[in-house]
Amino acid sequence: MHMEQACGTVLLLNLLCLIKSLKAAFDSINLFVRRKITHVPRGSATKMADNLGVPSSQISRMGQWSQDVMSNSYLDSVPRHLIRKLAGFESDANYYLARAIEEPPAELKRLVFPMADYWYERHTTKNVDQTSGSADGFLLLLKCFQTTFLQDAAAMMDVIPDHPIWKNELFTHPLFLDFRRKVKVHVDAREEPEPELLKKVAPEVQDQLANMNRMISNGFKELARNQQATDALQQTMQQMFNNIVSGRQPLQLSVRLENSSAPTSASASTSTSASASASAYASALVSAPVSTAPVHKMSRGVYTVADLWKEWTLGLDGFWSIQDMDAKYGTAWRKDDRKWYNLRKKEIEAVKKLQNDLGLSPPTAMDTLQRIMSRRNWSLDRLGTELQKGSYDPFSDPKRQKVDDDR
Are 278 and 317 in contact (CB under 8 A)? Predict the structure, then answer.
């Protein structure tokens, strides 16, 4: 109760001080006020805005007299056109302030509200005990004032040279004196930014330049997208070439003889087709013997029994399957890959034997060997070596498990 009474007393004193100050200001210019003195500024601003041709809807928003939800809840209470008109600018055109052309140096801005940057950084990084939107907004406003206060002061010192605020040591600092000199040059020269001059002298030219700027910007964006597509295609072609040279991708050779069902061709051509998984398959038609076998190495990127089975029976990334190459070319295609091939063949034979002897499905048989590898921490090389030496029989564990299941 005592707190509420104290707050009420403070508000009353503030109101009395405001009324007293307004009366003194009006008496000094011999202005007689018949209505409530505190309503005079609102009424005068409304009449001024109306005389300047500001729409009544914006005046209602400024005075918070609007009744619709959009104006009261979603639009800013400070309408842009009204503020521009009251400040002496055109509401539907760009504007500038001569004193705002010069930007204060960072060292000078830190002399105005010196702790604003420190606390703003702490609030934005959440390095405070408690954060709030009001605090962030207030600190951001102070940072804005660091610029506008200096720009306004540099211009107003010549308008009100006797104001007591100029006694502050900030306004005798060398940085401010240099900044004030630069601002004064802009103000005295009545310098306008180049876009403003162009818009006043030749608005159509300015519009055309803006359109050209947008077209150039869009052109650069399209060029960047095309460059990315070209880089991706180049990488794909390079990968295809590396696969063929390293032997990971088969090279198909065929011959067409004249006066036969397969006429010969003296020229060489290469055709490629991309699969849905972005893998590639290359073939070449050249003059060569029919019995020529492709040079191919099994994939070194296969680490599981399931992937090995897929490479053996179906093929990987659009390549021929191993069993198809065995059936068509025998051992000719794997002359330089025999050891790798022989170890993998033992593992494929083990999968097939598990299927035939124990009646396991292919996925179950592959999973059985994979579990053995995981349990013993073996690689495919180690499993193939053990099977080749005959030092390990993978069928004992599945047989024992099958007997237990039958029981």
Answer: no
Rounded CA-CA distance 196/94 in Å is 7
User: What does the alpha-carbon distance between residue 287 and residue 185 come to, in Å, rounded to a whole number?
Assistant: 83
Residue 13: which residues within 8 A CB-CB, separation 6 or more?
A: none
CA 215/CA 398 separation, integer angstroms = 71
pLDDT tens for residues 205-257? 667 777 788 889 888 888 888 888 898 888 888 887 777 766 666 655 544 44
In 10 A of CB 268, how many CB atoms?
10
Percent of the chain with pLDDT over 90: 15
> Cβ contacts of residue 384 below 8 Å, gap of 6+?
342, 343, 344, 346, 347
| pLDDT (tens digit per residue) in 349-360 | 888 888 888 888
Rounded distance between C-alpha atoms, residue 285 and residue 328, angstroms:
18
Q: Which three-class secondary structure state does DSSP give residue 272?
A: strand
Q: What sections of 40-170 are H helices per DSSP? A: 40-51, 56-63, 69, 80-86, 106-109, 116-124, 133-159
Q: Does an H or E element contain 18, and which?
A: helix 2-28
Q: Where are the domains of the chain?
A: 247-406
